[in-house]
Specification:
Helices cover 27% and strands 21% of the residues. The chain is α/β, with parallel strands linked by helices and 751 residues long. The protein has an eight-stranded mixed sheet, with helices on one face. The longest helix has 21 residues, at 313-333.
């Protein structure tokens, strides 16, 4: 179900609404209409001076601001300020802005919704999409324009011609019906000729269709010009198109046949051979109707093509088609994967200030970092950014869960590690070592998000002069900075609860946005949180993308989330251990949904999991013997069954044999959670033996280790074993992808 809101309820808003409520694919959740009295709504919808449509609907008023129509429960909003509309609150995922007031991406960002469609040509570089012209180019853009009614008539016809022939030149005049911005009598102080009465005049006017056509069909740049006249009819317009083709043998009959044979014939295109006039095309849904009798074949590849279009109803139908296509792309095709255009390798970072978010939340015991895996995992992305010649690089991360600035949670401690790893690693892609390691020194921005940390684009950055990506030295690197713990600012974690208006007024958010020209996310372990440094990049108005770690995580997990990509033949084994039933039960139930999947439950989880089963589950196996005793301080003994008062602190021999047999059968193994209490050397044996067995597995098995304590058991890097940096993010990612086919919040921004 495509959940839509409509901003503006005039001619286009009304036409879109009437078509949406008649389409079972859509659910209208809310409309924003100023000065609309709900008691007048039924009359407004059922009576129309222009259109003929089914009026077999009833309206039930639920409250002064809510009504039912068909299967739709619609909220009525009334506010000019988009920030106050809160579309998502009412279930809207898409908004059709039919006000004509939100014609830039920046303005449309005020709408609290995932996708916005402008019902007019954009006044900035917002992408334009038209069914029949370039809808196949849609790549998940969040804010788009449906252009104008004239462009939706002309572009599909020119698309047919450019697909089959070459256009030398084209000019057109749209003989356009009156619109709501015109006047019934002459008025004073109006700059355009539209100050004159539409009742009595044919009024020369302008059209932006030429520019819109070029944005949709750029190959026509320099070849097309057009103008407009307004005429005294209430609806339906006629395009007079003069076109000259390079191929001088083409006839009008050839063009007619191309239209009839097109896959969108009767949807976008239509042919008229009758002696019809404008009112005969009222409430038609095809925006490009070629009138054969009115058109002229002038010979030698020259034609006058006459095209009818209902500038209200067929244009609204085109907007509905655009919405439908966007939904299909976003939710059925691409929603399962993030887009390559946001991948760091495909981004131009030269001369730009880059802010990159990583996960440096490493474990510390007695003030000593005991595992640097997350820091090491960030180095490839850092090196790739540096190889792309940015102006500077600011590293952003969090540490712990502080309630404000404190020395214990300062990130300053990791600077020596960063310096060391940056000097030791190979440059990605170029396979050359960074030399002169003493020159690499990460500088600390101790004030965190603060005006003093903002490095302006014009600021001097020293002698940075990389000559090529094949050879460059550390001394030629741009400045590298580490921002103090981003969680020292409450706005980082409060971001999820902040309204769009609060975000806009927040000094911290605005300073953070001003710190970079490009924002990169590579903190996979944090992408399940709607925190400022994870999600705000989508709304910053700046370039944004993701790094190698996120791509590697997504690629590694693909065998698990792509349930049907191999026809369901791949055998998958999930080994789920640890002790927290609350955290692990959802992932057990999730993995069970994968075709040909088996689950082995081990560790302290095994004893907790068994009583929760009220019936035998065929593809779930539970550890049934082990080593332990009443307490950890007692002597280690063998326990042959879970049905005991004893505690099992490690896997037993029988269960281990069963587990290894399941591993032998599997193509993909996902292990999350230890088989025992690995903090005690006596009960680490089972987990250690499993590590050795997996490291010796044949190389055609894919093994995914689910981060945390499980990853800490591995010391040797193996090609067939992938170590995830994710904890809770990894489990949420798998659950959302497998069960719902969607991404978690910090990855959804790249979809």
């Amino acid at each position: 179900m495509i959940q839509v809101g409509i901003n503006g309820f005039g001619r286009i808003g009304k036409c879109v609404f009437l078509q949406l409520i008649a389409n079972p694919k859509f659910k209208v959740c809310a409309i924003n209409a100023l000065n609309l009295n709900i008691n007048d709504l039924e009359d407004y919808l059922k009576y129309d001076s222009t259109h003929n449509y089914s009026k077999q609907f009833t309206i039930e008023i639920v409250s002064p601001t809510e009504f039912k129509i068909g299967g739709h429960i619609v909220k009525i909003l009334s506010d000019k300020n988009a920030v106050n509309l809160h579309w998502k609150k009412y279930g809207c995922e898409y908004v059709v802005d039919a006000t004509g007031c939100f014609l830039t991406s920046e303005k449309c960002k005020d709408h609290d919704v995932d996708y916005v469609v402008m019902s007019a040509p954009a006044k900035d570089e917002t992408h334009t999409f038209i069914c029949g012209a370039n809808l196949d180019k849609y790549a998940g853009e969040n804010i788009v324009s449906g252009s104008s009614c004239t462009t939706n008539c002309l572009a599909p016809m020119l698309k047919i011609l450019t697909d089959n022939y070459e256009i030398d030149n084209c000019n057109f005049t749209t003989i356009h019906a009156t619109t709501s911005t015109q006047y019934t009598v002459d008025i004073l102080n109006k700059a355009a000729r539209t100050n004159r009465s539409i009742f009595n005049n044919i009024i020369p006017h302008t059209t932006g269709a030429s520019a819109s056509i070029i944005s949709v069909l750029p190959e026509l740049a320099g070849k097309i010009n057009g103008t407009s006249v307004r005429v005294p009819v209430g609806n339906c317009s006629l395009l007079d198109v003069n076109v000259e083709l390079t191929d001088k043998t083409v006839t009008l009959k050839d063009i007619e046949n191309l239209v009839k044979q097109h896959k969108l014939f009767s949807q976008v295109y239509q042919i008229n051979k009758k002696q019809l006039v404008s009112c005969d095309f009222v409430t038609t849904t095809t925006p490009a109707i070629l009138d054969i009798k009115a058109s002229i074949d002038m010979g030698n590849g020259r034609f006058k093509l006459m095209l009818w279009y209902d500038n209200e109803w067929s244009y609204s139908a085109q907007l509905v088609r655009l919405l439908e296509n966007m939904y299909e792309y976003n939710h059925n095709q691409i929603k399962n994967s993030i887009k390559s255009k946001y991948y760091i390798e495909n981004m131009d970072l030269a001369g730009k200030r880059v802010v990159a978010r990583f996960d440096f939340n490493v474990p510390v015991v007695d003030n000593v970092i005991i595992d640097t895996f997350r820091i090491r995992s960030a180095i490839p992305t850092i090196l790739t950014i540096l190889s792309k010649k940015p102006k500077c690089l600011i590293l952003v991360a969090h540490f712990g869960r502080p309630n404000g600035p404190d020395d214990k949670n300062s990130l300053k401690r990791i600077i020596p590690l960063l310096n060391s790893y940056l000097n030791a690693y190979f440059m990605p892609m170029s396979e050359t070592i960074i030399h002169d390691e003493s020159a690499i020194s990460v500088q600390f921005l101790e004030k965190g998000i603060h005006p003093d940390s903002v490095l302006t684009p014009s600021a001097p950055f020293g002698n940075y002069g990389v000559q090529s990506t094949e050879t460059f030295t550390a001394s030629a690197l741009p400045p590298i900075y580490l921002l103090e713990n981003v969680r020292f600012h409450k706005e980082e974690t409060d971001y999820e609860k902040m309204s769009a208006d609060e975000i806009k007024k927040s000094n911290i958010v605005q300073i953070y946005r001003s710190m970079g020209d490009v924002f990169i996310s590579d903190a996979f372990g944090c992408v399940h949180r709607k925190h400022m440094s994870i999600c705000d990049m989508k709304y910053s108005g700046k370039m944004f993308g993701y790094g190698h770690l996120i791509k590697n995580e997504i690629d590694a997990l693909e065998p698990l989330v792509n349930m049907h990509g191999d026809g369901g033949k791949m055998k998958i084994l999930g080994i789920i251990g640890g002790n927290k039933i609350k955290d692990k039960l959802p992932i057990i139930d999730t993995l069970r949904q994968i075709p040909n999947a088996k689950i082995f439950v081990a560790g302290g989880l095994a004893k907790q999991y068994t009583p929760s089963l009220d019936h035998f589950i065929e593809n779930v196996y539970v550890m049934n013997d082990g080593y332990g005793n009443k307490t950890l301080s007692d002597k280690r003994i063998y326990i042959d069954s879970l049905n005991t008062q004893m505690n099992l602190y490690d896997i037993g021999d029988k269960s281990m044999k069963q587990l290894l047999s399941l591993i032998d059968e599997a193509d993909v193994i996902f292990w999350n959670g230890s088989l025992g209490v690995i903090e005690d050397e006596r009960y680490k044996i089972g987990s250690t033996n499993l590590v050795r067995y997996l490291e010796q597995c044949i190389k055609n098995k894919k093994i995914i280790i689910g981060g945390g304590e499980t990853a800490s058991l591995f010391y040797n890097k193996s090609e067939h074993i992938y170590m995830s940096t994710g904890g809770g993010a990894l489990l949420e990612y798998l659950q959302d992808k497998i069960l719902h086919g969607k991404n978690i919040v910090g990855l959804d921004i790249f979809c």
